[in-house]
Amino acid sequence: RKEQLKEKISPTVTESVAATTKKATFANFMARLPFLVKNEAPGPYRNQYDPTELEETIPKHTVLSMNSVTIRKPPHSPGEAGRPVTTKKEDDAMVKSMFAEASFNVFVSNLISVERTIPDLRPTKCRTNQVADDLPQTSIIITFCEESWSTLLRTLHSIINRSPPHLIREIILVDDFSKRVHLKGKLDEYIKRFPQVRIMRTAKREGLIRARMLGAAAASGTVLTFLDSHIECNVGWLEPLLDRIRQNRTNVVCPVIDAIDDRTFAYLEAQTLRGGMDWKELKFEWRSIPSFQALGRKDQSWPIISPTMAGGLFSIQRDYFYELGAYDPELFIWGGENIEISFKIWMCGGRLEILPCSRVGHVFRKSQPYIFPGGAFEVFSHNTRRVAEVWLDDKYKKIFYALMPEALHIDYGNITDQLEFRRKCCPFKWYLENIYPDLGVPQINLQAVGEIRNLGQQDVCVDTLGGAHLGLWPCHGQGEHQSFSLDKSGTLKSGSLCVIREVGKDGEVLSMGLCKKENVMKFQHQDKELKELGDGPHVLTGRCLDITFGAGAQKFLQLNPCNGGKFQQWKFGLYL
Ligand code: LR7
Ligand code: MN
């Protein structure tokens, strides 16, 4: 009955037993690697994954050698084998309030053993693939901010139980200025049972990027392995990562990230995908593996070349991390660093891969439970803008701004050091052509974006005035009501609304309205002027956008006969 159940939950368990008879070897693994890499000669191989070891039996030897306290589970412990956990109706209120604490189901997480079993979801071949005998040791760095108790402990136990002890130099926890009490003395007390676990605390909120760098600076392993604080490492997760780095120190490798459901904590198999990118916000996205790349893979256990990484889970040789300039230390709190390091790795001579034989589950959640000092949008845009300014060539930078003109108004600080570093790396065009040829470059239909500043007056900008008639206001550099775009056909927009002409009892006014063909205005932006276009392309009416001065210091935005004067000259924030 137990066997049947196992099979149902994890069909791979039975496959692993079958695999013992095959005695497959993988000695030529490296020699048959896909394009782009010169790897060092493979070393002496040994089968490190004993295919006869079932998931449940693997923790034992490690637990003993770690002096860990063995946690005894009740016979029907919830969530075993990665099954979903459901709760009773009467617990709904509790579930809801505890959900708010972490943006995942803390109530359910607390019911599950910190040493629960999870299904081994590796491609079958992984059980017999071999890795080198002399793998480098890794330091594991986990930063956390306000992490829940049970998820943090499950993270730790899963690492310790499912990693060969001699491969872990140390586990460094970096508490990024959490306020929750369980993350103080109680945590210090708990980790005493793990001699290899240390905790560092930041003196102020640093954000995950700088917190990771603090952890890295204290690490002494040959390899650095970064992990999130709500994960579960799966069987044999570590060896393939270290093996690949041993083969070439400039390989940077990620596990496949399985999903731990934020509501039920079910451990769910992730599709085998690679990391991609969306041009808007330079955001990481999962993408399918293109056929040209799939062809280069002999079987499902082969590495997947990935243009970008998700960010949270990867191994990198320590010295190489510093050769790459680590992370840009001016990236704040959360976001952007994953794209930064991905670009860096590829453009500065490294290689980024996802290894299907290495799997780690991560609790995917829809929002963050901690505060973003300064505002989430501001922090994220600051980071992405830095990455765009440093790593995108001019042409591509403009695409970024065309898709995210709001970013033009976000301060991104000084990037001199980053630009200096970048000089020794390949152009972004090289990355696009060689590493991510299928990304595609969006066709941008815009001429200019950003504020529209008058050249005759000091610090006067066109302003939507929040929806009333279009007017003028001192330039504030914050975007919003002063953020416009002019497309190639001459339509002037702010957000999704267009500049339109309305004739009312006070005569003609310019305002913002729905972009209907009958009333949108069109402009030809030439010699700094914004010339009104009449019906049909290139028909000028002879009027230009102008400032009319009223009684006192009153200024109005109007269309007047073009006269080449200073008040009819305008400059956009950015020309594309
Ligand atoms: O200020 C902070 N300080 C921290 O130490 C904010 C966060 N953190 C910690 C946090 O406790 C967690 O351990 O940093 C880690 C990541 O933060 P999460 O879990 O709140 O966010 P996330 O899982 O969405 O983070 C993803 O994107 C981030 C962008 O900066 C990082 O790259 C994370 O590493 C990344 N996580 C993953 O890649 C896991 C897989 C998710 C996907 C796709
Ligand atoms: Mn996370």
Biggest sheet features: 6 strands, antiparallel
- Biggest sheet: strand arrangement: 21-20-19-18-15-26
Instruction: Please estimate the helix content.
Output: 10-25%
Please tell me how large the radius of gyration is.
29 Å
Shape: elongated
SS element count, helices: 16
CATH topology of the domain at 446-575: Trefoil (Acidic Fibroblast Growth Factor, subunit A)
CATH class of the domain at 446-575: Mainly Beta
How far apart are the termini?
67 Å
Low-pLDDT windows of residues: 1-69
Bound molecules: ligand LR7, manganese (II) ion
Query: What do the pLDDT scores average to?
Result: 86
Class derived from helix and strand content: alpha+beta
Count of β-strands: 26
The CATH architecture classification of the domain at 446-575 is Trefoil
Beta-strand proportion: 25-35%
From the structure above, extract its key features.
binds manganese (II) ion, 576 residues, 26 strands, Trefoil (Acidic Fibroblast Growth Factor, subunit A), binds ligand LR7, single chain, elongated, 25% helix, 6-stranded antiparallel β-sheet, 5-stranded mixed β-sheet, alpha+beta
Can you offer a commentary on this structure?
The protein has 576 residues and is an alpha+beta fold. It has a domain at 446-575: Trefoil (Acidic Fibroblast Growth Factor, subunit A) (Trefoil), CATH 2.80.10.50. It has 16 helices and 26 strands. The strands form seven sheets. A six-stranded antiparallel β-sheet has the order 21-20-19-18-15-26. A five-stranded mixed β-sheet has the order 5-4-3-6-13, sandwiched between helices. Strands 7, 8, 9, 12 and 14 form a five-stranded mixed β-sheet that branches. Helix 1 packs across helix 2 (11-19) and helix 12 (337-347) runs parallel beside helix 13 (376-391). The longest helix has 16 residues, at 376-391. The radius of gyration is 29 Å and the shape is elongated. The N and C termini lie far apart (67 Å). The chain binds ligand LR7 and manganese (II) ion. The site of ligand LR7 has 23 residues, from strand 3, helix 8 and helix 12. Residues 228, 230, 312, 362 line the site of manganese (II) ion.
